[in-house]
């Protein structure tokens, strides 16, 4: 089972690399739209499900990991990873790095939290998950401090994501110390996680809608406030408009309940 999943992942990555290698260096191939909407939705929708699963460690909500892991592998992991490859090929360092990184996050988290590797690497402990959340929180922080270039929605996505990672690290740290986190803390963590994902979905919807209104920003807070940064196209612009740079682009995700 483990080897089948690994081979599936490597095969999809290889196909994505072959496809994106055909893109022109300018990134302006008319047959290739920006992958922003797919990347944002892959991150956002998976993160929303994960947030509900985290909150379900409390007495309410009732969402299990079984709803999260398939979504994490297919949409949050594979689709977002491919979106990242496309955006990097187009020269977009912020969005491409975020999508690629958080696409990898979802695969790594699924293997770590689902127990798929337990037979070969041993069971995953609470402190393993705590440090996993800490290092990914650092990754999210790197994007958060630069997110103001890409609009208010993306700024919200990344800073709420940093908070979610901090809360997750606290939750699993308490479990590792033998102290059960209060149900209210689990629910608060899940809600913050859900809101981060909802923000990414909102940014994606705003970008897709703007592309169908001639580049006009229809959804508030989805436009970019700052011009080009270090040669990168603005991310707050409509995704599919013929002459506009692309929309806000976010990453990912959060981790569901474990154990």
Please provide a written account of the structure.
61% of the residues lie in helices and 0% in strands. The longest helix is centred in the C-terminal third of the chain and has 29 residues, at 183-211. It has helices spanning 2-20, 36-55, 69-89, 93-114, 118-121, 126-144, 152-176, 183-211. Helix 3 (69-89) runs antiparallel to helix 4 (93-114), helix 4 packs antiparallel against helix 6 (126-144) and helix 7 packs antiparallel against helix 8. Mean pLDDT is 80; it is low at 225-256. The chain is globular and about 55 Å long. The two termini are 21 Å apart. The protein is mostly helical. The chain is built from 8 helices and no strands. It has one domain (33-259).
Largest sheet: none
Overall mean pLDDT: 80
What coarse outline follows from CA principal-axis ratios? globular
Q: How many domains is the backbone divided into?
A: 1
- Give the number of DSSP strands: 0
Label the structural class.
Answer: mainly alpha
Task: Give me the number of helical elements.
Answer: 8
């Amino acid at each position: 089972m483990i080897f089948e999943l690994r081979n599936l992942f490597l095969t999809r990555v290889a196909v994505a690399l072959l496809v994106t290698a055909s893109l022109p260096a300018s990134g302006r191939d008319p047959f290739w739209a920006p992958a922003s909407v797919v990347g944002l939705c892959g991150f956002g929708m998976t993160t929303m499900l994960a947030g509900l699963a985290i909150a379900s460690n409390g007495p309410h909500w009732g969402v299990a990991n079984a709803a999260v892991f398939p979504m994490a592998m297919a949409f949050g992991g594979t689709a977002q990873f491919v979106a990242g490859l496309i955006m990097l090929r187009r020269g977009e360092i912020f969005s491409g790095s975020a999508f690629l990184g958080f696409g990898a996050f979802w695969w790594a988290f699924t293997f770590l939290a689902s127990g798929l590797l337990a037979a070969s690497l041993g069971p995953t402990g609470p402190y393993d998950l705590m440090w996993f959340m800490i290092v990914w929180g650092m990754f999210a922080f790197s994007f958060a401090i630069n997110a103001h270039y890409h609009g208010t929605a993306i700024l919200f996505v990344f800073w709420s994501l940093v908070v979610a990672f901090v809360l997750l690290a606290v939750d699993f740290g308490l479990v590792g110390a033998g102290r059960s986190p209060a149900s209210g803390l689990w629910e608060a963590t899940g809600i913050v996680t859900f809101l981060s994902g909802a923000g990414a979905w909102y940014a994606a919807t705003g970008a897709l809608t703007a592309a169908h209104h001639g580049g006009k920003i229809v959804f508030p807070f989805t436009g970019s406030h700052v011009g080009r940064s270090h040669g990168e196209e603005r991310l707050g612009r409509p995704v599919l408009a013929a002459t506009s740079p692309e929309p806000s682009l976010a990453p990912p995700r959060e981790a569901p309940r474990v154990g």
